[in-house]
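As noted in the main text, all predictions were made from sequence alone. Below is one such record, for DUF3299 domain-containing protein.
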Amino acid sequence: MGMTRIHRRSVLAGLCGISVIPPFANAAEEYVDLEWTDLVPKGQVIIPQEIQELTQHSQSTPRGKQPQSTGVRSDWNGQTVRLRGFIVPIDYSGTGVTAFILVPFVGACVHVPPPPANQLVFVTTETPYESSGLYEPVNVTGMFGTASTTTQLAEIAYALSADRIEPYGD
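Prediction:
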């Protein structure tokens, strides 16, 4: 009788699993479209690109100094999101980028001081992305979350495990 009970439970568990599979299969195609402003806690002001470029010449903000971040948003932790930005390469496999910082504007972390940590996303991908350079805008889609990371270039508040990286507009 114990064998029959285990068998029934296995069958019921299997049937329940089958009914759950279709939503997960469809979920891979669905994502939340994020904007950079979505990553900043409500009420916090984002420093516009022009102001950041001017601060590199200011005596009060040394060249390359990252402005302080005042928090993160965890609303999309564990969700699949899509975010547009520019690639600052960190690691390569052959000629493809496998780890990079996704930044909101061209030159961030390279030519001007990095934005606050809550305006940077550390992206990893198993499939190397053949980037055409720092000035190529991309859409990155994958699992998103808060994750404090420090690189030589900046402190980063978010992480994204990329399933898909495409030139912006594709």
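The longest strand covers residues 80-93. Strands lie at 32-34, 80-93, 96-103, 121-129, 137-150, 155-167. These features were considered when defining construct boundaries for the mutagenesis experiments described in Section 2.9.
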